[in-house]
Design brief:
Helices cover about 70% and strands about 0% of the residues. It is mostly helical. Helix 2 packs antiparallel against helix 3, helix 3 runs antiparallel to helix 4 and helix 4 runs antiparallel to helix 6. The radius of gyration is 22 Å and the shape is flat.
Length: about 240
């Protein structure tokens, strides 16, 4: 308020405050939704030894996620000398917070589905092995794309260029490697961050499409086909 937004009203401030407050409270509710039932199931002896390890890991990850969120927000409240820019959190901490959330969500979903659905016993053919490896590689690529999105958000890199497929009038912008050393551009140059996110996004959609086409050549259970088709639909919608 003192440095930039002199005309902010109390109502406008409350809107920001309640968004942050709601996010924190929702995070605490999620934490309780993990920890309280886990403690109850553990006490009743309903958890097998391997499942106990999964439950401990998930509950630990929930607590770590909350700690990482506090650490991220803290970076946005630090006083920056001679800076009157819009206050923002560190893009590195934002990416770590998002990455941790994705790991937590994926691990929770995987654990839940493993309990609810019996594992298919398929013959380990060469094609099936290749499909599994390709699926793992596609997963890693999508995860990297999502993390690059956190850097876009953290640097407001989406505001630099608003044209597609070109960035302005060029396929490769002039200021792509403006920072020194060169490695800094990948994480701190808004132009490079947006460029990388575009390339990773296109690569992810291409990889998902190739995964779908390859899966059509292999005899797969109905559930697996539905999963691959859903992945394709969501990738194109995204």
């Amino acid at each position: 308020f003192n440095s930039l937004n002199h005309d902010m009203t109390l109502t406008e401030f409350k809107f920001i405050w309640y968004m942050e407050y709601s996010h924190r409270m929702w995070g605490r509710v999620v934490g309780l939704a993990y920890i309280l039932p886990a403690a109850y199931f553990w006490h009743r002896g309903w958890l097998s030894r391997p499942l106990k390890g999964c439950v401990l890991a998930l509950c630990g990850l929930v607590c770590f996620q909350g700690l990482l969120g506090w650490y991220m927000v803290k970076s946005g409240l630090e006083e920056k000398p001679d800076s009157y820019d819009i206050p923002r959190v560190s893009q590195y901490r934002l990416a770590a917070h998002l990455g941790s959330a994705l790991v937590l969500y994926s691990a929770s979903l995987w654990t839940g589905l493993s309990l609810l659905l019996p594992r298919h016993k398929l013959p380990e053919s060469h094609q099936l092995l290749r499909l599994r490896q390709y699926a793992h590689g596609t997963t890693a690529l999508i995860f990297l794309t999502a993390l690059s999105g956190a850097f876009v958000a953290g640097l407001d890199a989406g505001l630099v260029y608003n044209s597609f497929p070109k960035m302005g009038e060029r396929w490769i912008p002039d200021d792509l490697l403006a920072f020194s050393p060169v490695l800094r551009n990948i994480f701190e140059n808004p132009t490079t961050v947006q460029f990388d996110h575009r390339i990773l996004g296109i690569a992810s959609v291409t990889a998902v499409t190739a995964l779908y086409l390859f899966s059509r050549k292999i005899p797969l259970p109905r559930r697996t086909r539905m999963a691959v088709t859903s992945l394709l639909a969501v990738a194109y919608m995204q």
